[in-house]
Amino acid sequence: MIRTLPNSRRYQVGFKLYMFLYFGFLFAPLLVTCVLAFNDSQFPSLPWKGFTIEWFTANLPERVGIFHDTINLYSIWVSARVAFFVTIFSVGVGTCAAFLFEQEDFRFKQGLYFLMLAPLVVPGVILGISILLFSNTLGMFFEDHWALDVGLFRPGFWLVVLGQFSFIATLVTLVVSARLKKFDRSLEEAALNLGANRFEVIWYITLKFLRPAIIGSAAVAFLMSFENFNTTLFLVGSDATLPINLYLQVRDGSTPVINAISFLLIVFTSTAALANLYFSKKER
Amino acid sequence: MKKGIRWAFVIFITPVLLWLFLLIVLPHIDLLIMSFRIEDDFGNSTWSVSNYLNFFNEPIYWLTFARTAVYSILVTSLTFIVALPVAFFITKVVDVRYQGFLTMLLLLPFWVSELVRVYGWMILLRESGVINHFLLKAGLLRQPVEMLYNDVTMVMGLVYTSMLFMVVPLISVLDSLDDSLIEAAYDLGANMGSILVKIIIPHSMPGIVSGSIVVFMLTLGNYLTPNLMGGKNSLWFTEQIYNQFIASFNWNQGSAFGFLLLLLSSLVIWAGLKLTGQKLSKVVK
Question: Is A114 in Cβ contact with B280 (below 8 Å)?
């Protein structure tokens, strides 16, 4: 049953087998993707034709590796820029929201808190279309009333940033709030008694205390933005982000270049995840 | 000093209000308004409920909607059935030394983009895929079989994608379950089944509800997995929304669809919370 009780052999072996199969199920697609990135073949499939790193480095007419693939490289650059701004905005606003909900009292606080949680339970596709509609409405309004053509309101880079920010900020708020709850407010009172003003207290004491949560949530925000598909799909303009660009290629047939990109993504994200885990363990 | 505190309040609340009203409240009001308007042949728009009437009059629309809802419930239940033993094994059965390592291993694949995971399944399962290659080599098949593009594969893909959001809450509730309760039941002669029904499931209810809500919502709103792994006949409602917006450029119709999907997901979440008497603010943690 559990580890402290006597268990039949059949139960233990059966359970271990189940877990083994489960982990196989979990890792099979990732493993296959990585392995086939190094297959010397024009298609991402078996048979194995030998090891090569040409899908990363080559620049031949029939085989362009990822390091020379300008379209894919450009979409990585777009995604990185989007993720950078989304991280900055959501960490900034999310930290403000955490202070607001943890340290301030005001009317309609419950209602506003509920509203802040809403983006988590609204499907990403719906967030995408409603922001697309609203920006279009605003764009038409500006054009009709002031004959202004505002680029921000058309699908494109900044709309993608805003769309992703709209729900990632909620996550940052929750993570930072959880840490702020553990903060001993008598430290703030002590500083105030010693003559610091509210902003000095926040800057020198509270934010120092929140730093691990802020860094951790920034890393998660960056990753979530980098990988977002659903919301981005409706807001993207001519500059495709990496997931959108990969989706278009996968839908219309694929080459091992996609495996090479996937391999790099897997290595990058698992390193980031492990580093995040390591630092959060160390902090405790 | 009193004044300083009010300034801090203003600084905190301004960005939050801008965020919530400009990006959440007003866009959703706009979505609702757009869904009740139509454009005539001259480009003038008027109020109408015909977008919603279209939905009920065209079987393809409401059938897709019902299909999506039913499959999302199926995916949620399957995810729960697969995830419960995993969470139980990690929290209660395995040697404590391996607990942290296994948990980490469990989370790792979900840091990788959903697109990469779906792509991995595609190269495993397609006609020229890896599984077919091995089955042919082993002589179990004469002809390669197309394993992609059907409902079973699509459901499996959706279960795979949403697994994390079920396993994590289950692990956290089972962690708080006192082992001595199970030991006591065992000493009193209870078998595995009654321990599961009378102790484990009731104790895990908060985790089950929060996991199910998140999995249901993510499955309902998923676009990638049904689109890439489902077949021509496995339409998903988000694809209908996409078609209206991008292909037909009928934004009013698309808004009506979007609003219906939002209504369904809110309704199910609300019902789930009501049935088990929980609060949203508790569940999202």
Answer: yes
